[in-house]
């Protein structure tokens, strides 16, 4: 392999990881939410809120040290350092912001028993509108003008990448092997029976919704802190793709992981088409851009031909209204 | 008392409003006994079991557990005491595996592999073969029931209540269940076996208590009694009134020949059935013997490819749907008022429209004639004294009795040439029920052919001209109501003979 090809492949894979990670984070969160029987279509909105608040937090938390003070009381040369603790703090803010928006969804759907789909769509619109107005001051602002090299990384990757990868087996284990997971799945499967057996359906679902919101918030933060700077609609529909990814992965964490990286790889190659096929650029671009969506549709067609697969993995009460007998 | 019963109820009474469900019931189960609890629908069996399981509290009377008086305040208390129940309708989680289902409902006392081992252990001991890792949605009714039984057994009950356990089973599965029950009894468990099927009871149980109208009317060893005498005890001595209004029986309106359909795993076979103008044709049977599929087959909700199987007013209609059958002159009143007969959220006007879609008076050229509809609502509510708050009342806001009068009235006011009605007076107060029965007879008097499916035998005996019995999806040959006697009816309803008693 010549060095040029090696470099190209490394770049391609790095880009794939960057693109796949937010998708994976958001999808894993929503997977838990859906397993508990709740359909939250507001992933995109929660990601946007998480992205903006993560960005604002990162901007405010960077450590500023004054290097030169020519006029007393006024710093003329400063050093901005974005340290690892600062970064973690920003992530926590992003997760909290996502969870707060999710709590609104939880309150409306679980306490007031509003329609999941309507509230979820509303959440996305709210998230987009809110971040557009609140985030207008941060357009074009670089949260860390100096320290790109200092970006906290572990083994060459951002910690969120590792976090998302570790989350896959953890969520699988929690859902399949622990009592908590059993309760979540049972509630998503048949809320009436679970209620009759004495489980607090709305409360269990509320916690799942909060978890989903926090994960979506982290996904948004990853995009603006690791990938690109804040801009309006920075998540570019990744929240919707995360929803499709759950269907793609038939509610299984490992398949969701595979799906996320397939999507990531497809986008990454789309961006490097000039290099791959200098002569067929436009046609291939179209194909590759639509590939994730065509893939999803194909997989859905295949799944729907196999009712057993759906029955086994899809939560039977997904999105259905729950009215406990009073 | 040196030899205390496992469970004893003393003079238990329970009433729901004016309805007395249990009246001074004495009931006793010994260890290692298989005790049958017999009775018609509404005889008070469920109420008694709910009291024993802690789901309901008796108004008066005492419960003794191993000779000690006790209060069973909740199902949890009952479970802790050692009372287990296997319900008729399973509350299982379809997407979860067998083990997970069991783990979820036993409060996490045991986990993972140990639980799986315990399940396999118990399953082997009692011949309840299950595969612990399979998801429940793949399992048959019999396998699901085994999960319910295992679930109950894991809590080590001393008394196990089986509520109509064979109603969902194939004969082979039922035989397996009987083996299990015998093994349980041999190990000292007391068993309460609720059933309608006398043959089973005679084969399996060593004691029986019969309830009728909330009272104990007999307790005995079923092996020493004839099926006939037990059936008569269950149904009571009723007079078949031979006196009835003379009605002119006209031409054949509905003919059914060799109709075989399956709906929701329920099979239906009707060899021959003829209903004439001016005739009321009663279909008796204990709940769950194919009434739903029978109704679906006649109403066209479930069609058959054999177009000749059903003839409505001379037209072959086997493959026609409900609206096409309505055009031929047949009208239908299903059992379930909310959701089947009427759309709960829609108002009365729209609900009248729904069964009048093919009526040219109600709709023409795609437009709805609201004046006609509101006149219809007026007519129906007046005729049946339906209490409502105007045409705009949503159907769900009507009480059960009022809504039933409304949906019956909706069809009757159209002077149907054939009316098929399922459980016309279920859950309706006595006065309204009488009103509905009178109207049905009047309607027959004006020349309609009426088919009444009912679990209320008294009702059928009162209004029917012809009577047939539905048992496990098979309709017996019809006979004039005077030609039946109560013993034969009881035998046919409990399946003790094939079809009509010879």
Describe this structure in words.
The complex is a heterodimer of chains A (326) and B (502). Chain A is built from 13 helices and four strands. By secondary structure, chain A is mainly alpha-helical. Chain A has a single domain, classed as ABC transporter involved in vitamin B12 uptake, BtuC, CATH 1.10.3470. With 502 residues, chain B is of the alpha/beta class. Chain B folds into three domains: 229 residues, P-loop containing nucleotide triphosphate hydrolases (Rossmann fold, 3-Layer(aba) Sandwich); 168 residues, P-loop containing nucleotide triphosphate hydrolases (Rossmann fold), CATH 3.40.50.300; 80 residues, no CATH class. In chain B, the strands form five sheets. In chain B, strands 13, 16, 19, 20, 21, 22 and 23 form a seven-stranded mixed beta sheet that branches. A six-stranded mixed beta sheet of chain B has the order 6-7-8-3-9-10, with helices on both faces. At the A-B interface, helix 6, helix 7 and helix 13 of A face helix 3 of B.
